Every structure is written in C-alpha cells, then in structure tokens.
Amino acid sequence: MERVSVIDAARRGLVLSGVWLILTSADPGAYAVGAVTVAAATWLSFRLRSPRASPVNLLRAASLLPGFLWQSLLGGVDVARRALDPRLPLAPGWFVLPARLREGSPRVVLGGEFSLLPGTLVAGTRKDRFLVHVLDRTRPVEREFEAGQEEMREVFREVGS
Amino acid sequence: MSAADLPTVVLTGAGLVFFCAGAAGMVRFPDTHSRLHALTKADNLGLGLVVLGVMFQADGVVPVLKLTLIWILAIVGSAIAAQIIARATLPADLHEDDD
C-alpha cells in the first residue's frame, strides 16, 4: 500500500464517522464499536482507492443526480411493466461497446450507473469493451451508453470540464 | 389517521407494487441476466418509495438521513452485486478467451 498522509486519513475517517453516527443515531453506546469500524473502513478504503487517485469532480457528479434519479425511476417502471405484461415483451441481447474510461473505479461506477438505468445491465469489460446486457435490443443503447460514458469521463476528470 | 399517514400509505403501497413486479420478473423472465434487470431496477425503486413513505413518519432529521443512507447503501450494493453476478454468468460466446 502507498504511503497515506495524516490529512488524507483524517478526511476519509471524518466522512466515515459521519456515516456511522447517522446509522446509529449517534448512540453513545455505539461509539467504541464505531471507532474500530471507522478505522477498519478507512484502512480498507485506502486499499481500494489510492490517495493519489485524482479527486472526483463532485459538482459534476451532483449535476447528474436529478437525471439519474429520474431515469432510474423510469427504469423501475419499464421493467415492472414488462414483468407484469401477459405478453412478456422482451427482446434480450448483448451489446459490446468500446470502453473509453480508465480501468478501476471509473468503469465500475459507470457499470453500476447503467445497471440501474432503464434496460441495461453491465457485466464488466473484456479487451477494453463493455459487455452490456439489454432487455430490448431495439432501443438506442449505443448512443445512451456513449453519452453516459462521456459524462463519467468528466466526473473522473479524464477530459476538461 | 394523521395528515402524514396518507403519503405514507400511498408511497409504501406503490413501493410494494414494484417489489411484486420485481418478484414477477424474477419468476417470468427467461434467463439470469434478464432476471437481474428485474431485481436491480424494480426492487430499488420499490425500496426508494417505501423509504420515502416511511420518512413521513420520521421524528426529526436524523432518521430521515438514516433512511436516505440505507437506500443509498442498498442501491450501491445491488448495482455492484448485479455486475458481479452478470459477470459470473456470462454466456460462453462472450468470455471464451479472457486475456
């Protein structure tokens, strides 16, 4: 593991302490367990994401949130409609689409995002191509995926924003 | 019934519809990957609606934050789990040579 500065560790530790306080309603009886848990979670977070990793553009990420929530609502409605329709209208298939994001977190986050959006499910990459399962092959998946990938490149500062 | 009970009943009721739809998709969809769509999307929306509905019964801001956090952790968990299961069950023609 790379060297981690006290400031980096304190910053992540504070965020995770906040999560713990919310989850336990700040119950004093949970402080001791929380101290151990937060320390372990902070250590794990540095194992999984280096302190040198370029910081995420949180403003750009936040700007995507309303659209994401709306789209994931549509995603739930869409799949519910298909599941309950007596004719079971599905045309499942696979798209193999070029990955233009760096390996690691950017690809995992994009995969998670598209696994919650209407009609797409991501199964990671192979040879720098995303494997995308779709419920309906007739939808414009390439275009939507490309647009989402471009947004994620801005969030992870892979392009100027 | 207090004024807050109406949105609670409507939202949690709608949430349960989506859980039922997710379960229906789990049973009716033809293959593992299609079933994952039903589980991730319909159930997350169902949980979101239940969480929103329960928020109307929350006493103060901390329970609201806690409910929001639970929902976020659940969707992140299901988005990651869906990718892992989708990966582990790839059809043969998509993973023949993993180099």
Automatic annotation (TrEMBL), chain A:
Keywords: Cell membrane, Membrane, Transmembrane, Transmembrane helix
Pfam families in the cross-refs: MNHE
Location relative to the cell: Cell membrane
Keyword Cell membrane: yes
GO CC terms: plasma membrane
GO MF annotation terms: monoatomic cation transmembrane transporter activity
Entry annotated with the keyword Transmembrane: yes
InterPro entries per UniProt: Cation_antiport_E
Superkingdom of origin organism: Bacteria
Bilayer disposition of the protein: Multi-pass membrane protein
Main location: membrane
Similarity-based family: Belongs to the CPA3 antiporters (TC 2.A.63) subunit E family.
Protein name (record): Multisubunit sodium/proton antiporter, MrpE subunit
Organism: Tranquillimonas alkanivorans
TrEMBL record, chain B:
Coiled-coil region list: none
Pfam families linked to this entry: PhaG_MnhG_YufB (PF03334)
GO molecular function: sodium:proton antiporter activity
TM region positions: 6-27, 64-86
Keywords, alphabetical: Membrane, Transmembrane, Transmembrane helix
PANTHER family tied to this protein: ANTIPORTER SUBUNIT MNHG2-RELATED (PTHR34703)
Protein name stated in the entry: Multisubunit sodium/proton antiporter, MrpG subunit
